[in-house]
Amino acid sequence: MTGDDDVAAVLDAATAAAPFLAALPPDRRGRGLLELASALEDAAGELTEAAVADTGLDAERLRGEITRTCTQLHLFADVLAGDDWLGLRVDEAQPGPPRLPSTVRFRMPMGPALVYEASNFPFAFGVLGTDTAAALAAGCPVVVKTHPGHLATSARTLEIASEILGRLEWPDGALGALHTEDGAVAAMADTRVRVATFTGSLAAGRALFDIAALRADPLPFYAEMGSVNPVFVLPEAARTRGREIAEGLAGSFGPSGGQLCTKPGLVFVPRDSALEAAIADAVRDVPAARLLTERISTMYRATRTALISLDSTEVLATGRRGGAGEVEATALAVDLHALDAPGSPYLEECFGPLVVVVRYDDVAELSAAAARIPGSLTASVHAADGEESGGDLVRLLADRVGRLVWNGWPTGLRVGQATHHGGPYPATSSAQFTSVGAPAIDRFLRPVAYQGVPDEALPGHVRAALVRLRG
């Protein structure tokens, strides 16, 4: 026992469930995901009420998040209906000389997965969120580390999921949970856990990454962490669409208390443009918000105070004042050179409703600014027709981020086949992966090659895919 967690029992159950899930035909896994989605939808009312009480987030936003979570489950059921996820490759036998046996390469489940819930998405990154959906689709049992910021929501979701999986006669260990930090860390160090994922702060993600790397058998670990998500506004776009851009910015960094991993944290604007005043006006109308946990609120207030105390910082505008326990949106302004200093605090994520407006004098300065951006999930460029430097910026920023947005905003991530929600460190620990969209299943699969093995010895779903491949 570790705290209130019986880690050994939870991991024993997950280990026992692994062969069942690995052998379960993909269509049955897919049906299981669809059943879970239906159950979530049926319970949307009570789950929304629980999440509002847990997090203080808006009910409409949370209801939409349940819909997104169901969409993710449906997406992975669709993935399993095809063969692409298998990564099937074949070298047919050759009689020679020299004689070469056949080789069939495909992907198989990694094994029991430890999934950390996120604080800011109690459903989409929760018990049945994107990580769990992808892992179950891959055939991996899941152990969820519940988040203390929405325990009641997680507990009810687990009850609903367990009822569905029991009715489908999946083993108990297909989906389990740990509730303490010590229990989850013990699981990270346990060799029965074969893959782990995390969404949260850079400090926590890096600490877990180090635990994973220092295991006797290093643990494949995917962490989504800090991201500043810069926005670059070019002069003509600022001149012709200033009000629209300002309102878009306020609508991207302000909602949900700015507690979104894709929240724009830096926006580069031409000095002395009308856009800056428009941004100030839009920010003044952003409502105050209660943050998810006391710890997040304390960290936000401390970071905000520290930035405001710097000589290079100007407070551009603050949002509507709130009640006890709420924080107000804040727009700060700095000159571009404030980003030059090593370890500039403006280049670190502030989790909450704060954005830093960065003034530049000439678009030629933006190339060097782009190069200073730490690895991020997104970068956005606002440009008018004919502003060729926008294309140059996109090419430069592709080296720094996982998703590039043109004349739009990074929040409101679309969940689909081409989604990429990842990026270079410190945005994530593994820039080649995504935690959202169909390719998120890749984190829970590993390749294996069968050389000279008769087709009848291959897993049934691989044999079926081979028949389809060979026509």
UniProtKB/TrEMBL annotation:
It is an enzyme of class 1 (oxidoreductase). This is NADP-dependent aldehyde dehydrogenase. One of its GO terms (molecular function) is aldehyde dehydrogenase (NADP+) activity. Keywords: Oxidoreductase. Residues 4-274 form the Aldehyde dehydrogenase domain. It comes from Nocardioides soli. InterPro entries: Ald_DH/histidinol_DH (IPR016161), Ald_DH_C (IPR016163), Ald_DH_N (IPR016162), Aldehyde_DH_dom (IPR015590), Aldehyde_DH_Superfamily (IPR050740). Its EC number is 1.2.1.4. Pfam families: Aldedh.
